[in-house]
Amino acid sequence: MAFSGVFDDFRQNLDEYNDRRERLIKISRDVTNLSKKIIFLVHRLMMETASGGTPDSESVAKRSRDKLQEVQSIYARMNDEVPDEQFWRYHQTISPGLQEYIEALSFTHYIQYGTLITYGQVRTSLSDDNGVPFFPLPLEDYLLGLSDLTGELMRYAISGIARRGGRAKAGEVCAFVRHCKADFERLCPYVRGLSKKQVVTAQSLEKIEDAVYAIVVRGSEYDLPPEMLDEVIARTISSFSSVVSKQKPGHRGRGSDDEYEDDY
After folding, report:
1. b/e map of 36-74 (b: 16 or more CB within 10 Å)?
2. Residue 201 to residue 195: CA distance in whole angstroms
3. Where are the alpha helices (DSSP H) in the chain?
4. 227: domain CATH number?
5. Is 4 left (phi over 0), alpha (psi -120 to 50) or beta?
6. Taking CA 182 as the corner, what is the angle to CA 177 and CA 184, rounded to the nearest 5 degrees?
7. Is 60 exceeded by the pLDDT of residue 1?
8. How many Å apart are CA 184 and CA 139, to the nearest integer?
9. DSSP E strands, 203-261
10. 85 DSSP assignment
11. Region entry Disordered: which residue ranges (predicted)?
């Protein structure tokens, strides 16, 4: 009977673990889907606001942060599901959604400020009103989420390069992604999975560099007014834009843009 009671305890613990893990998988998927929608929202709003001139990054960032609060509320509820002492037991289940959230948050931050969001700022966004974090923020998830950001910056730079001010912005994004790649390279031996993401970052950087190079070369060939030069540039980069539109945005699989347009 004593042995039977011990195995009953084992069974109960395993059942509780599996049930909690299934709930966390659902939470992680919800966070991932919301974060993808937010990323597409930022892309779409930046293109729409840029149609009449310079994009209104402040208003875009405000709408994005309003949506990010939905993700933060999910993590606030998850705090009751996973006590701090059990967080690392379920870390692999939580990690994918957390990286996607960091990608969306860092993209919003870059659109608004043109800088890389810090670890402390991400942790603050995942804290309650008293500044107490909902859960420990793994440094590796922070870095992997930032690495995914470079794919969105590539898409952002190329899609808006033919618009007014887009050429200068593409140059800024190119330099920013280049610095990110160089800094992340030194951390690859210490962060599992970062080296694979660096391969994609290198591909994104190459696409931005090719587009910016084409702009500089074409711009030096013609002595044209800015309006006419923008038209020439739009035709020149059409091949780059078609590649980006066919590619799934980000480093991980992402659904088509139309999937998110109705809700956001």
Report:
1. bbbbbbbbebbeeebeeeebebeebbeebbebbeebbeb
2. 10
3. 2-50, 57-81, 91-113, 119-125, 139-159, 166-185, 194-221, 226-236, 238-246, 258-261
4. 1.20.58.2140
5. alpha
6. 90
7. no
8. 13
9. none
10. G
11. 245-264
Please state, in angstroms and rounded to a whole number, the distance separating the CA atoms of residues 3 and 7.
6
Instruction: Provide the 3-class DSSP secondary structure of residue 20.
Output: helix
pLDDT tens per residue, range 53-62: 556 788 899 9
- Please tell me the total count of domains within the chain: 1
Amino acid code (one letter) for 246:
K
Q: State both tokens at 116.
A: 């890389």
Neighbouring residues of 103: CB distance < 8 A, sequence distance ≥ 6? 35, 39, 145, 146, 148, 149, 152, 250
| Phi, psi dihedrals of residue 127, rounded to the nearest 5° | -130, 160
For residue range 62-87, list pLDDT tens digits in order.
999 999 999 999 999 888 888 778 88
Q: Scanning the structure block, which residue is given the tokens 């729409």?
A: 48
**Three-state SS for 204?**
helix
Q: What is the value of pTM for the model shown?
A: 0.82
For 58, the token pair is 């402040």
How high is the pLDDT of residue 232? 64
Q: What residues pair up with 133 in beta bridges, in sequence order?
A: 127
Which tokens go with 220?
């030096």
242-249 contacts: CB < 8 A, separation 24 or more?
243/207, 244/154, 244/155, 244/158, 244/159, 244/207, 247/155, 249/39, 249/40, 249/43, 249/151, 249/152, 249/155
Residues 231-259: b if buried by 16+ CB within 10 A, e if exposed? ebbeebbeebbeebeeeebbbbebeeeee
**Domain residue limits at 239:** 2-261
* Cβ contact 122:103 at 8 Å: no
Amino acid 9 reads: D
Q: What is the CA radius of gyration of the chain?
A: 21
Reduced to 3 states, what is the DSSP secondary structure of residue 177? Answer: helix
